[in-house]
Amino acid sequence: MLKEILSISGKPGLYKLVSQGKNMLVVESLIDGKRVPAYSRDKVVSLSDIAMFTETEEVPLRQVLKNIHTKENGKQCGVDSKADNAVLRNYMSEVLPNYDRDRVYPSDMRKLFSWYNILVNCGLTDFEVSVAEETQTAE
After folding, report:
1. pTM of the model
2. For the chain, which terminal residue's Cβ has fewer other Cβ atoms within 10 angstroms, N or C?
3. Which CATH fold would you assign to the domain 2-47?
4. Per-residue CA distances from 81 to 15, 35, 102, 107, 130 (Å)
5. pLDDT tens-place string over residues 66-119
């Protein structure tokens, strides 16, 4: 599921991949449903390709989102993305206790919590790896 959800640098929110053209992707905003092109010059990243730094390894974003989902019982994140840095760090340590405090910035946490809320609002809460995605990753 996260493979089709994209973050586009310079554009707020998350986008779902709708179609591919020759030099662009057609994406749909998860916030307002508008379709827009994402060109090859735009930095487009799939959420399945993102990981969070911990003190020992990198944890896939999928696992971090799953931890938040479990903590919040499927509801929206209890921390406002505009909260104080200390509040963000405290919540992050509850969700991912061994996150790397030197490399995970408050801005990253704000983006993570914002993305989680967008996904919950859209009903996209299946953060498990499907068998098809697992096979593609292995290849």
Report:
1. 0.86
2. C
3. SH3 type barrels. (2.30.30)
4. 19, 25, 19, 9, 29
5. 999 999 888 888 888 788 999 999 999 999 999 999 999 999 999 999 999 999
